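1st attempt posting a full record on here, be nice pls
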Amino acid sequence: MSKPAEPIVDFIEEHHVLTLAISRDNIPYCATCFYAYLREENRFIITSDHDTRHIRDCKESGNYRIAGSIALETKMVGKIQGIQFTGMLHELSGDDLNKARKTYLNKFPIARMTPRLNLWELIPEFIKMTDNRFGFGKKLIWK
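the predicted structure (as tokens):
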């Protein structure tokens, strides 16, 4: 599988908060999550308890398809940057969990204080980046 273009990866690595969107029974919901990014695997790692609405809705509906976004907050049109993505959400276990835990805790050491760190991975299937620094409405697409 090909990797996203460097400007997309660089943007993801420069930030640490994403908006996660899910839908259950045709009712949308979104949550804001801190994330760590595994560059080589092109995966986002988030932590979320099983009783949060977004996780509960995914589990109860059996629908783990997600959408999300990361945006640079700016009022300057020429500096607008952001990504939108779609993909799948999976709870981590085993060796994947150990690697993800290490990565997440290195980025967010305060999470060590959480009694139970439930880690999930977001596996993107599609990423669209808008970057007005390269021209108004300039888009990069990765599938």
